[in-house]
Design a protein that fits this description.
The chain is built from five helices and ten strands, in the order αααααββββββββββ. It is α+β, with helices and mostly antiparallel strands. The chain folds into two domains: 60 residues, Orthogonal Bundle (434 Repressor (Amino-terminal Domain)); 106 residues, Jelly Rolls (Sandwich). The chain has a six-stranded antiparallel β-sheet, with no helix packed on it. It has a four-stranded antiparallel β-sheet with strand order 4-9-6-7. Strand 1 and strand 2 form a beta hairpin. Helix 1 crosses helix 3. The chain is globular, with a radius of gyration of 16 Å. One of its GO terms (molecular function) is DNA-binding transcription factor activity. This is XRE family transcriptional regulator. Keywords: DNA-binding.
Length: 185
């Protein structure tokens, strides 16, 4: 099932109209309608806004997998979201379970590009990042707090603030991200 169909299914399960979801996530009703009909592919920022408005994870909206004790995800079977405008890629490395939990993600930012601003998560959501390759600039709270990370550096932050990731080097920037939603309020 595709992103748009998953959005529609969850919106209906939550008994939300397009208008109500629009108000919750800050995405226009017409844009939501086009996304649900899979006529439009949202940017990563818009996709995250929709996930927050539905009180779920982006990974869940990208696709669900059956919960098992051990689950191998082959490289070619990863859920990958690619922002067509920036080239930003999000590779889900962990299973996508229907309930909140922990997501393990590989993000790749092309040279001279950035993620764009991610909306604040619910209070209690934490993010952990370690840079594998390149230089990563992390901006929190609308750019009020800025950090520059080199390969091997890591950062932890409460993710209930706007956050942005910028490739601060000349080559590709690859970093691993863990989103812990277990304590989300």
């Amino acid at each position: 099932m595709g992103f748009g169909r998953n959005v529609r299914k969850l919106r209906k399960e939550k008994k939300l109209s397009l208008e109500e979801l629009s108000k919750k996530c800050g995405v226009s009703r017409s844009m939501l309608s086009q996304i649900e009909r899979e006529e439009k592919n949202p940017t990563i920022q818009v996709a995250c806004q929709i996930a927050e408005g539905l009180n779920t994870t982006l990974s869940r909206l990208l696709g669900e997998q059956e919960e098992k004790e051990a689950l191998v995800i082959r490289k070619g079977e990863r859920l990958i979201y690619r922002d067509e405008q920036s080239g930003f890629e999000r590779h889900l490395l962990s299973p996508s379970f229907p309930s909140r939990g922990v997501e393990f993600i590989l993000n790749i930012i092309p040279p001279g590009k950035e993620s764009g601003a991610f909306p604040p998560h619910l209070p209690g959501v934490k993010e952990y990042i370690v840079v594998d390759e390149g230089r990563l600039k992390v901006e929190l709270a609308g750019g009020k707090r800025k950090y520059e990370l080199e390969p091997g550096d890591s950062i932890y932050f409460e993710a209930d603030v706007e956050h942005r990731f910028i490739n601060a080097g000349n080559g590709e920037c690859r970093y691993y991200l863990v989103i812990d939603s277990n304590q989300a309020k």
